[in-house]
Amino acid sequence: MGRGGGGGGRGGRSGSPERGPASRKGLFSNIWLWRGVAGVLTAAVILILCIQFVNRSSARDFPVCPLLELCPSGWLYFQKKCYYLSEGEANWNSSQSLCSLHNASLLVIENHQELSFLMKITKQDPWIGLCKRNEEFFWVNGKALDNKLFEVKGSGNCAYLESKGVSASGCYLTRKWVCSLNVSLA
Predict the structure, then answer these.
(1) Per residue in 175-185, pLDDT tens?
(2) Buried b / exposed e across 88-116, counting CB within 10 Å, b at 16+?
(3) Residue 15 lies in a domain
(4) Cα separation of 42 and 82, whole Å?
(5) Which of 103, 56, 60 is nearest to 84 (CA)?
(6) How far is it, in rounded angstroms, from Cα 41 to Cα 26?
(7) Structurally, how many domains does the chain consist of?
(8) Domain check: are 41 and 118 in the same one?
(9) Are residues 55 and 79 located together in one domain of the fold?
């Protein structure tokens, strides 16, 4: 057979693309392009979620510096509390009254870290907010002393902080004092 006939060969015009509905190139016809776009978008979403997770977890790992205005001028900040170390001296009751003028109280020690911190920074055995009622020590906030925290030495009714722990003496004696004020970071 010659050239022009309809038999043999590759079924039609050789070298030309097939014509018909399946062969039309349009916006939605290239499935591989759309799979690629979907893959890129999925990867971007996963990356964004990972970045947010890392940012949230690292914010918990590093302490946020408190604002300088949390404590009154001349007070120290430690573990969500402000502390005032007095310059003058007074008896235990007067010391508590002077702390109250600042909406604070004589020091209430809540844990070993706080005790250790205050033993390092205080001098001259200041009053703290611990006094004896009915042979038992209570904090100025009404809570009983947890004897696991420390033992009070001495036979007095009002407690003070010294370099080796906590002792008690007569409440009428004059000493320096430490006020504490709880701070909210919210």
Answers:
(1) 999 999 988 76
(2) eebbbeebbebbeeeebbbbbbbeeebbe
(3) no
(4) 49
(5) 103
(6) 22
(7) 2
(8) no
(9) no
